[in-house]
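Re: your question from the hallway

Yes, I did run it. Sequences:
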Amino acid sequence: MKILGADMGSRAVKLVVMEDDKIIFRKQLTTMQFYRDYCNYDNTLHFDLSKLTDIVPDICVSTGYGRNNTNIDDFTPINELKAHAMGACFQTGESDFILLDIGGQDVKVMSIEKSVLTNLDLNDKCAASCGRYLENMANVLEVSLEELAKHHDDPVNLNSTCAVFSESELIGCIAEGISIDRLCSGVNYSLYKRLKTILSGFAGKKLYVGGGVAGNQAVLHFLQNDYSEVIPLEDNQFNGAIGCCVYGKKIAGSK
Amino acid sequence: MKYIGITTTVPSEILIAAGYTPLDLNNIFVTADNHEHYIKIAEEDGFPQNYCSWIKGIYGVCIEKGIKEILAVVGGDCSNSLVLAEVLELKGIKVHPFAFPVERTLDGIKKQLDSLMGYFGVNLFEVEKVRESLASLRDKVIELDERTYKDSTVSGWENHLNQVCMSDYNLDAKQFEKEIDGLLDEVKTREPENHIIKVGYIGVPPITGDIYDYIENMNAKVVYNEVQREFSMPRHKESNSIYEQYLNYTYPYDTFYRASEVKKQIQERDIDAIIHYTQAFCYRSAQHIVLKHELGVPVLHIEGDKSRNLDARTKLRIEAFLDMVKDQKLFKENI
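Structure:
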């Protein structure tokens, strides 16, 4: 049984094919590439996997931002939180933990107890606590995301609620001659401060982190203030797609 | 017909006794073909972008519809209403202020209602007569509410709409009562429905009216509308006077008192989960801290701003929340 999971994020589409609980294919495309190069629209949206691989899946499950965007022919859509919770249970082999997923414009936090989602929250109205913020700030500083992610010492204070105002605040700091290391730390710390608000209702010991920002060492470092164990998911970028496959297996089993 | 605009549910018996027809400005705003036009009027006159859309909508309605006088609730609702009253006064509209007491005591509400009666030149006898004349309408709307959760023949949306109309009795209490009679007859012919998840809706009435259909499309149903139900004065029978009736009305008082009534309804209606709606930029969003702590079932907080349709983010949050509640419920039933 081959199951295709597709996670349509704001920045990238992540595709995974699993067979017997093993990943046999994975691919990340930009959202634009996915729709432009691999989909055709004829009243409904059709995704052509054959352009990427010879594998022919038996079941296809999709998730992503909003139900309409994930409505592709022959795919069963599931909500993102379920996909991420299932992916994390599968990847970690654990059934009780808190999961934080930080994507391009989404932050999701979930409590999972006995493998069931018991509490959830998502950022609302504002995406200043997400990956796109780090990208913008790295551009202002003219450093790579990898370089930005290394710094957590002595962060410069950035207070703006708005991500756009934060850019001008950062420029002000540059003009004051503050070192690039401290500026990078400040950017990471300001993201962490925003995350703290959404994490406030989710006390626990073990925090797994998924999504692109799970690769940011500095943010993980700051999160250790609140959780004794902060562990990035091994396959942080593909967690949602893996969760889709796990769900696909479940529906196949119940048929 | 002498109309008086109201900004939320008020002791309308006093206004009716004084010969007025109360007109809930919220209802005109939210049911207008182009409701955002009213918001635009307010923003052009200086109301900020990050300000309650209900307030801006009410303002726009007053200006455009040439409303001459209003009774503004300046205590027990919000400080935005207070400022709204001041700005309307500036525009030449006659504003009668009314405040629910800060402390929920019989003495407190008596003082406020007596003062309002004195202001409008009516006495308790006249007001009680109006209260009595509205009792059968209230009873019928209460029955409609019961049909929503007891046999599920009334939809969450119908429940919302008819209860929310109780702030001004849809401008004509007698005609409205006839409509409710008709609806009650009609629902008797409906088949009872079953939904996996029973949802309680708490908080102010939503600007996003499509929330009811959205929830019902996910095998869930709103079986309780907290504030809308309060508009119908569901405990009017146990209240021996107009004073007690507005003492037993939860909305203008403290969050713990509101929560105590919501908890009773969670038990009574076997509610699985609560969706708590607040208007964007409203102080009530922080009441979520208390409500979430008090209620003992999963609570999702959502916000609406200008649009009458749920946005994609809010839909995702509701969908994920209901999905989670369903999984939890099935999980509990299986062990």
